[in-house]
């Protein structure tokens, strides 16, 4: 071992001990006759001291040449500091160095290895191994480790078995696009990387494993949006002989456990909210319920009062901005511009100031009197001093626009506190969504989700009405997990594939093994998958998942550090019976 | 929840309780007026009873139709059995059923779901979800879960951080063949799936993570031998500021812990053996040391005595088979035929019987007298009653042939007891191997392995002489892990790539990021990777890894259950800018 202690270990109790430390030079302070060096490793920082009087001359001379990020090993004696730093575990001592070995000198790093660095995103990604040396990123990854260990131990103690499912599986065109892997031994054939272990975990239930979990990489070849990764990690779980409520109770307990273990926060029972309510009250199926501003629907109050902008629309809906009555005209105009941005796409905003004295001032005073506006205030929950913003339009898009506004206002008002946690279950999702482009239904969750028993008839009559035994787990306005009770009999699964536009042959080719399995005693089962990257980020007080992944890819799916993907050697392609085509070929 | 208890939970203490159970019908015994059903789940078997007198008539009638592997839910009362089965936790009770629901009927399974099944390998692989219902396979996978949890908790408590490294990385032609993944967004470019996270874990050390571990899937596109999988799981570990001994001590402790935790076995300190000694005494770098039959080299004693077969050879070497003097001539001939098989490839065997009365009888009595043979016995450690087998030939091949013979004899004599464990470290491996075909050196371990300090000069003068800071962990004659102290400076790494025949450009293209990283303060580091599949199998008392993998591939790399790999749709290939060529194109 090249050290006797790590850099976070020593304190006054070690005074006069001879120690050997190794680590990185964080900082050098040269006072002319005395040199202090902060020596850093994963565990902390220990101060080294070299001085003209007490340090052997050659060692002192060496110390003058040390630079940032040099890796050194020192031998020395622990001495008490003259001026102690009570904020550091090692702040009471320093090491009077007697021997110094430079294990590996460092070039000057391209950015500072500090909590606040001067490095830009691109540079930090290219030198990710240096970025990872920075304390916040290091702590994020150590935190991730703690979360995964807590998850594993919690689930294991609850009787879940960690089973590894395969990575080289079969491509299925349903859902997102697969990454594929050409098979050298089977010319013209390909494996696919799993988008999730969905069918395998269901087979494990058929196999009687009863409770399964896995923390597993999944892959989706999608056009990347900010903060989406082509490979991501899932906490994947499945249970047998359960109903929806059993799954909710089990994983509510897990999230409560995680918050307790990692943050010391006790979270009460999670509210349950139907999809319909979430859309109506928050315009969103993953509402952030840490703050109010719930939607108030104003159709009955605001239509047919002569204001044409409202009359023709499907939905008129508003929110109350707490304390917003004090906004200047300019600020209000700012918000109007904000909702008109193409990313939001609203046409505009009607506003109503609810003054402290009980009077109202609005952009639609011509059409609505104080009595009208008082009713709006009542429906949107606006108090004196608040501001009401109102939108109108097609139901779905208007809800989504007002939801975006609600979230942005909350963000700017500091209502989305990263250290405050509120989770809820959203339930009763529609089973199917109609897709105009492909003129067919898509599974809202996935094709294996069971409809609610009371909706089995709807599948025949009006499939769009059927609700699913599906549920999402939402934390602080982010979907962190979703699951469902699954179909477990062949006939219903076949019907579902039919509704989704599969021919019998397609269903058989792609999922025949699952439908076969259902014929040999498949038990009722259901489960959930949680997005680990996002969960860890949220628990870590951030919404940026990239800071919680050791080696993330950029928005083009590239690893700029190792320069992947990259071209293959011709011989490799030949072995795979493949030819690359120019990009504009197809 | 569809049950109040699982099928392993109930005993006499529950007598008279009303319970709800769900599970699979393991067995139905119909005595005419009474029907017993064994109900099975992951946790055990509970006996159900339906009889003409006490069971509602319709329920009794239903019970007559139950078949193997039907999934049922029952309600009933726990009653004490008349004839108890003390070998089962639930053997004292049975359930007098009052309600029966068939949750899912099963077709007759294609093979019996019993510990000893009548299903062949192919059929069991095709219906793996049924094979997984069999108790031994289920227990293997639950055992695997316990091992991985024990590994994770042990390493976590020892300060190791679990860090996920990426799966979509860069192809490097060195080593085994990569599986590759075409990039849709980067035409003509490919990711590769990792053969191991080697470079990433080294970067984590450069990043200061100090101690890393990961239980991670790795991929090698090799022609498959029996019991080798294209995707396999590794316990991957790395440590900073360590020397070889530190790594050995840490992972010796881990294996001892695993054996204690999972088997209750206390294993003493692991012997250390150099590669040279292992080859000399066992003809093998992964010796099974649970039994003797170590090699005795006989060149000095057996050459130049007129027996031409020995004189011309590089090596004459023998082993003593305990109690082998009693072998018949036919048995000895059987062994001679065995070593002549092409898989072994020896030319023959000389044999010497060491009789209890101190006399000798050999196949070479014409050339060697009793005094000679007594010396052979002394060198091979043969006692009265033993048999000596002797081989001669080129050193390397002869050792390997005699090693094969030693292992097969031990196997047949029952000396390779699956419940007896002996581990050792093999050290001091050569750094490089000369490859005649490519006329260049290959890295014996991998290109990142550090030579021993005292061999740095040899790298210039005679690279073949250099030894590596590399080590293998061997358990019961199987290599279960291997590792090394790594190179951590750019100059030495460049020199190593040069020795391995990389041009500067190739080295830079493939591993430039690593050599760059070494310039920014790379600490000394080393690590190890253990094959989880094999480790779990050995701890589980088997050498067949396939029985410890939930969904293994067959020897052609196929998953016959899901039928993967398979053809893609044309549109998928087009999106990837690829064209499949006929197999005989290249």
Characterize the structure shown.
The structure is a homodimer. By secondary structure, chain A is of the alpha+beta class. Chain A folds into three domains: about 10-105, OB fold (Dihydrolipoamide Acetyltransferase, E2P); about 140-270 and about 425-570, BirA Bifunctional Protein, domain 2 (2-Layer Sandwich); about 290-415, Gyrase A, domain 2. Helices cover about 30% and strands about 25% of the residues of chain A. Chain A has helices at about 55-65, 120-125, 130, 135-155, 200-205, 245-265, 275-280, 300, 310, 330-340, 370-380, 395-410, 455-460, 490-500, 505-515, 530-540, 570-575; strands at about 20-30, 35-40, 45-50, 70-80, 95-105, 160, 180, 190, 210-220, 230-240, 270-275, 295, 315-320, 350-355, 360, 385-395, 425, 430-435, 440-445, 470-475, 480-485, 525-530, 580. In chain A, the strands form five sheets. In chain A, strands 6-9-10-22-21-20-17-11 form an eight-stranded mixed beta sheet, with helices on both faces. A five-stranded mixed β-barrel of chain A has the order 1-2-3-5-4. A five-stranded antiparallel beta sheet of chain A has the order 12-13-16-14-15. In chain A, β1 (about 20-30) and β2 (about 35-40) form a beta hairpin. In chain A, α4 crosses α6 (about 245-265). The longest helix of chain A has 23 residues, at about 135-155. The first copy, chain A, is globular, with a radius of gyration of 30 Å. The two termini of chain A are about 60 Å apart. The mean pLDDT of chain A is about 95. Chains A and B meet through β1, α3, α4, β6 and β7 of A and β1, α3, α4, β6 and β7 of B. β23 of chain A pairs antiparallel with β23 of chain B, so a sheet runs across the interface.
């Amino acid at each position: 071992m090249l050290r006797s202690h790590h850099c976070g270990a020593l304190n006054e109790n070690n005074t006069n001990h001879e120690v050997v430390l190794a680590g990185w030079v964080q900082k050098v302070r040269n006072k002319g006759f005395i040199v202090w060096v902060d020596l850093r490793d994963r565990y902390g920082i220990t101060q080294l001291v070299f001085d003209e009087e007490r340090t052997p001359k050659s060692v002192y001379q060496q110390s003058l040449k040390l630079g940032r990020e040099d890796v050194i090993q020192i031998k020395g004696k622990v001495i008490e500091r003259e001026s102690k730093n009570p904020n550091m575990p090692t702040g009471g001592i320093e090491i009077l160095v007697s021997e110094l070995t430079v294990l590996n000198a460092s070039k000057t790093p391209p950015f500072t290895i500090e909590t606040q660095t001067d490095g830009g995103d691109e540079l930090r990604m290219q030198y990710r191994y240096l970025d990872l040396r920075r304390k916040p990123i290091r702590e994020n990854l150590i935190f991730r480790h703690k979360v995964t260990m807590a998850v594993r131990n919690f689930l294991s103690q609850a009787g879940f078995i960690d089973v590894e499912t395969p990575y080289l599986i079969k491509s299925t065109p349903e859902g997102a696009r697969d990454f594929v892997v050409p098979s050298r031994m089977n010319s013209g054939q390909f494996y696919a990387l799993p988008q999730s272990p969905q069918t395998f975990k269901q087979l494990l239930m058929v196999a009687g494993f009863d409770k399964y979990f896995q923390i597993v990489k999944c892959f989706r070849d999608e056009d990347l949006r900010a903060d989406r990764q082509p490979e991501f990690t899932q906490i994947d779980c499945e249970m047998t002989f359960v109903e929806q409520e059993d799954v909710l109770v089990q994983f509510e307990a897990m999230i409560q456990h995680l918050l307790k273990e990692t943050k010391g926060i006790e979270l009460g029972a999670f509210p349950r909210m139907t999809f319909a309510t979430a859309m109506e009250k928050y315009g969103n199926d993953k509402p952030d319920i840490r703050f109010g501003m719930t939607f108030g629907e104003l159709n009955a109050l605001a239509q047919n009062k002569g204001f044409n902008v409202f009359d023709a629309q499907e939905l008129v809906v508003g929110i109350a901005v707490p304390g917003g009555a004090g906004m200047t005209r300019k600020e209000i105009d700012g918000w109007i511009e904000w909702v008109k941005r193409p990313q939001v796409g609203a046409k505009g905003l009607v506003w109503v100031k609810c003054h402290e004295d009980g009077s109202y001032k609005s952009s639609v005073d011509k059409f609505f009197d104080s009595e009208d506006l008082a009713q709006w205030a009542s429906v949107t929950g606006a108090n004196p001093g608040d501001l009401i913003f109102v939108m109108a339009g097609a139901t779905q898009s208007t809800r989504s626009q007002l939801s975006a506004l609600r979230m942005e206002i909350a963000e700017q008002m500091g209502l989305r506190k990263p250290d405050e946690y509120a989770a809820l279950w959203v339930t009763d999702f529609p089973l199917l969504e109609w897709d105009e482009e492909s003129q067919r239904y898509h599974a809202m969750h996935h094709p294996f989700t069971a409809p609610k028993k009371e909706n089995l008839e709807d599948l025949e009559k009006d499939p769009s009405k059927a609700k699913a035994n599906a549920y999402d787990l939402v934390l602080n306005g982010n979907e962190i997990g979703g699951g469902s009770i699954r179909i477990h009999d062949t006939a219903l699964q076949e019907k579902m594939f039919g509704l989704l536009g599969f021919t019998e042959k397609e269903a058989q080719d792609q999922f025949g093994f699952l439908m076969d399995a259902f014929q040999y005693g498949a038990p009722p089962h259901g489960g959930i998958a949680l997005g680990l990257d996002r969960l860890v980020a949220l628990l870590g007080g951030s919404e940026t998942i990239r800071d919680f992944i050791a080696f993330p890819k950029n928005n083009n799916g590239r690893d700029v550090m190792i320069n992947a993907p990259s071209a293959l050697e011709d011989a490799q392609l030949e072995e795979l019976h493949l030819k690359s085509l120019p990009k504009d070929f197809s």
